[in-house]
Amino acid sequence: MTDRAPAAVQLSDLLGRRLPGGERVADLLVEAPGTTWPVRAVVVDGTTYEAHWQRDRLALGAPLPPTGLLSLRRDVLDRQVVDTDDRRVVRVGDVALRPVDGGLEAVALEVGLRPVLQRLGLRPLARRHREDLLRLDDVTVMASCVVAHASHAHVATIETHHLARLIRRLPHRMKHDVLSQLPPEHSRAVREHIARRPHRPHLSRFRVPRA
User: Fold this and answer.
1) What one-character-per-residue DSSP string does 88-126 give?
2) Lowest CB count within 10 Å: 51, 109, 134, 195, which one?
3) Distance (Å, rounded) from C-alpha 195 to C-alpha 66?
4) Helix axes 172-179, 184-196, angle to 10 degrees
5) Taking the model in full, what pTM does it have?
C-alpha cells in the first residue's frame, strides 16, 4: 500500500469521454512494468493512436500499432487482485494517472469501495472512505488476475499456512498465477501445505486473519 497523494486524473473519468473530433475514448494503452506506466496510446473507434495530454484533455497523435502495450481497460480495470501482503482478494476499481511532459502516466491502482462509489456517481459518499492504492512496482499483471506483493524477502516472512489459506480459495488458474510470483522455496511449501489440507468450501467466507 502507499500513502501517495491522489493523482489528478482517473482512468474511469477518461473512458467514454468525447474528444474534440467527437470520437469516444475506448481504452488507454501503457508501457509496463515499472514504478509508473507511461500512457503511450489511446484507442478510439477500433484504431490506436499516439496519446498526448494537452490543456487538460487527451489528444490524438499519429496511428501506431498496439504491440507490446498493456490495455488498462481490458487487462487491469475491474480485474481481481490477489494481495499476498494483506492476504485478501479485491478488485481494481480505478487507475490513478497524472499529467507529465505533455502526456499521462499511471501511478497506482485504486482498490476498495471508494472507486466503486465514485464510478457510480456517489462522490460525496465515496469521500467518506479512505483511498486504498497499490503501487505499480508492487503488482504483476497475470493472465487471470493481478498479483500484488511486497518484495520476495517480505513475502518469504509470511507464514505458509496463511498464504495457503488464501490461495486455496482461488480458481485453479489464479492459483497458478499467484504461486508463480512467490519465491520457489516458498511456493513449494505452500503447494505442499495445500495438498495436505484440501479446501473446505464452507470455510471460504471467512477472511484470512492478519499475522
Assistant:
1) EEEEEEEEEEEEETTEEEEEEEEESHHHHHHHTT-HHHH
2) 195
3) 41
4) 150
5) 0.76
Is 118 within a domain? no
Q: Please report whether residue 143 resides in a domain.
A: no
Residue 156, pLDDT above cutoff 80: no
Grid cell, residue 53, equals 495530454
The residue to which cell 482512468 is assigned? 11
Q: Where are the alpha helices (DSSP H) in the chain?
A: 11-14, 72-75, 113-119, 123-126, 152-155, 160-168, 172-179, 184-196
Q: Total domain count for the chain?
A: 1
116 occurs within a structural domain:
no
The CA distance from 33 to 137, in Å, is 7
pLDDT at residue 85, as a whole number: 75
Say if 107 falls within a structural domain: no
The residue segments making up the domain with residue 69 are 9-73
List the single range of 80-84, 87-91, 180-184 with lowest mean pLDDT.
Answer: 180-184
